[in-house]
Amino acid sequence: MRESVDDFADHLARVRNRSAHTVRAYVTDVVSLLDHAVRMGCVDLAELDLTVLRSWLAKQRTMGAARTSLARRAASARTFSAWAHRSGLLPADVAAPLASPKAHRELPTVLRADQAAALMAAPGRAAAPPNATDRTAAPPQAADLPAAGQDEPVLLRDRVLLELLYGTGIRISEACGLDVADVDHGRRVVRVLGKGGRERAVPYGVPAQRALDVWLSRGRPALAGPGSGSALLLGARGGRLNPTTARRIVAGYAERAGLPRTSPHGLRHSAATHLLEGGADLRAVQELLGHSSLASTQIYTHVSVERLRAAYRQAHPRA
Question: Is 102 a catalytic residue?
């Protein structure tokens, strides 16, 4: 069974082009499943059946696994079963009928347009000398933010990071993975390598272009060093900006600006919501976000109360 797990991991990485994080999660689930199968008396992979699969999920549920975790583990089992059947290791795709609980998805905080604008301007405010109150009330994330009077390049980097995240709706991993050559200044688009190695071109607006121009002319050259390579966004020490640090930067500026708790994912969701509220087609938003199916976009975005009210007032005879 160990050999089959290794082959499955190789299939996910090489054939399905899954990320290292996804491969690790799926392999962990499959190892847990096969350990449970052995405890139930299975001596060979071919003895795996639906009863064992359901028993494994039931045990996970009794151990307190969340609905999202159960849904992912069921998906791991279905993917493994389908692969094992195609590879001749299972006589049938035993996990095909395996049901999984519908994962409950909590939508992140969505900023209003004016709040998003305030966040975009936050790096500029950070450059102003703070008063005594500001100094004593610095948020925990402030360690990742430039202090007043700190080198201008860091502020320029933070501004372009925020403008790109909100202006394009790309994922934080995609933003940190951008190279200088991925920016097409003439067409105002960035070339993004998304999940599954899928490439897409995402447009950005004039504010992001201005932030990029200043960053590339004055900010990046000042931070660049031997380890910078072709990375577009750099950390304070000159290496490629780390997604974890970028998340703390976004959260810190949001708190400093007095906004609700905000993450890069929240900015992505805000961008999609504002596009829909502005009349963008759902298919266009799907393409911009890099979702493989429209269902993902429908779950990821939501229609604001204001838009529902406007539609009601326009269409309902008793409005």
Answer: no
Three-class SS of 133-175: HHHHCCCHHHHHCCCCCCCHHHHHHHHHHHHHHHHHCCCHHHH
Separation CA 249–CA 126 (nearest Å)? 12
Q: Is residue 166 annotated as part of the catalytic site, yes or no?
A: no
Angstrom distances, CA of residue 254 to CA of 119, 131, 220: 6, 18, 23
- CATH code of the domain occupying 114-261: 1.10.443.10
Question: Known catalytic residue: 59?
Answer: no
The active-site residue, picked from 26, 166, 253, 300, is 300
Question: Where do the structural domains in the chain lie, given as residue ranges?
Answer: 2-86, 114-261
Q: Does 85 qualify as catalytic in the annotation?
A: no
Q: Which of 61, 195, 247, 307 is catalytic?
A: 195
Residue 220 annotated in active site = no
Q: Rounded CA gap, 138 and 130, in Å?
A: 10
pLDDT, tens digit (0-9, with 9 covering 90-100), for 224-275: 999 999 999 999 889 999 999 999 999 999 999 999 999 998 899 888 888 8
Question: Which of the following is catalytic: 157, 220, 256, 268?
Answer: 268
pLDDT 10s digits, 270-287 = 888 888 888 887 788 888
Global pTM reads 0.66
* Catalytic site residue from 18, 72, 171, 248: 171
Judged against a pLDDT cut of 70, whether residue 128 lies above it is answered with no
Cα–Cα distances in angstroms (integers) from residue 204 to residues 3, 34, 184, 187, in the given order = 47, 47, 10, 9
| Distant-in-sequence, close-in-space partners of 36: CB < 8 Å, separation ≥ 6 | 52, 55, 56, 59
Classify residue 242 by its DSSP letter.
Answer: P
- Helix 113-126 vs helix 152-168: angle between axes, to the nearest 10 degrees? 170
In the annotation, is 291 catalytic? yes
- Which member of 188, 247, 265, 307 is catalytic? 265
